[in-house]
Design a protein that fits this description.
Elements lengths: L7 H9 L4 H23 L2 E7 L4 E3 L2 E2 L1 H16 L4 H5 L9 E4 L10 H13 L7 E4 L7 H4 L3 E11 L3 E3 L1 H4 L12 H4 L4 H5 L6 E12 L18 E5 L2 H20 L10 H8 L11 E7 L7
Parallel strand pairs: 1-10, 4-5, 4-6, 6-8
Antiparallel strand pairs: 1-9, 2-3, 6-7, 8-9
């Protein structure tokens, strides 16, 4: 008889029967996460992590809080190449920080309390007192926490947008401006100027683009229809708002092709994402400068 080859699956079976099975499995997962992160760092590209889970939603538009927390934890740990989410958050937040979670309250697809609380929980785990954490959207200019914030966490759902093509992480900071409409010209081409004018670039330490149930098609201002929403059940995270929005645009475009059966570009085009890179140097938009790390559920990933 030939010599039996021990496969990785065989080794897992044996390891599962040992007293150290749990620790061993944890170390394997940690090693795999670090391997993915290491590949990206070697490439010298901007990190974007996409995580998806079939159980992310309890029902249409209703996130599963436990799954959301787990997804966010794994995505942030992977982004920073850490074994645990707590260590990853401590890379960007200290106990002395004042932290604003910039949310989005657009009624058809809000950031949701489940996501906000998952973020807030980890900020508190990093040592920040609850009174030094704020969650707001339209009231950020009047909110004392945001007025004094040393760190901003930027979180909003992805959707098509009448003025900018796509509403994403770049656009989510528009509420820091006294007059949002001042940035609507030329399809919001110069949205990125917000980030320097209001000292947002240095303070925003994490961008979270929610792809749980994105809106991939809209007609006119504030338009919404359940027909053009799908349960993608994903979350994108990056320190680069341009890179994370660039991936979001690609996914929306892919869904539009799938739904309409032909290429149907966003109208207007989301050119502010590209110009945030080439004109304003806020981040990178080119796919060849972005390393996308994909975690979790792969079916229907579209990218």
């Amino acid at each position: 008889m030939g010599k039996k080859i021990i496969t990785r699956r065989d080794f897992l079976k044996v390891a599962a029967m040992t007293p150290f099975a749990g620790a061993w499995a944890c170390s394997v997962k940690t090693a795999e996460r670090k391997e993915s992160a290491g590949k990206l760092e070697e490439a010298g590209k901007v990190k974007v992590v996409l995580i998806r889970d079939e159980n992310a939603l309890l029902s249409f538009k209703k996130p599963n809080p436990d799954v959301i927390q787990r997804m966010l934890d794994e995505a942030v740990a992977t982004l920073f190449g850490e074994s645990h989410a707590a260590a990853a958050w401590k890379r960007i937040i200290t106990p002395s920080d004042i932290v604003g979670i910039k949310s989005n309250v657009w009624r058809p697809i809000p950031t949701t309390r489940e996501v906000e609380q998952a973020i807030k929980r980890r900020i508190m785990d990093a040592g920040v007192a609850e009174e030094n954490i704020g969650v707001d959207d339209r009231g950020v200019r009047r909110n004392p926490v945001f007025q004094n914030a040393t760190v901003l966490i930027n979180a909003r759902p992805a959707r098509t947008h009448h003025w900018s093509g796509m509403g994403g992480c770049i656009k989510n900071h528009i509420m820091f401006a006294p007059q949002a409409s001042a940035y609507h010209g030329d399809s919001c081409a110069d949205l990125a100027t917000l980030w320097t004018e209001f000292n947002l670039k240095e303070r925003t330490k994490l961008n979270i683009l929610l792809m749980l149930n994105p809106l991939f098609h809209g007609i006119g201002p504030h338009h919404y229809s359940d027909k053009y929403v799908w349960e993608y059940k994903g979350i994108l995270v990056s320190q680069d708002p341009v890179a994370v929005d660039s991936i979001g645009v690609q996914i929306l475009q892919a869904k539009r092709r799938e739904f309409f059966g032909e290429d149907r570009p966003l109208q207007p085009p989301a050119k502010h994402v590209f110009l945030s890179d080439t004109r304003h140097n806020l981040g990178v938009s080119s796919p060849d400068k972005i390393q996308l790390i994909k975690l979790g559920w792969q079916e229907g990933i579209l990218i």
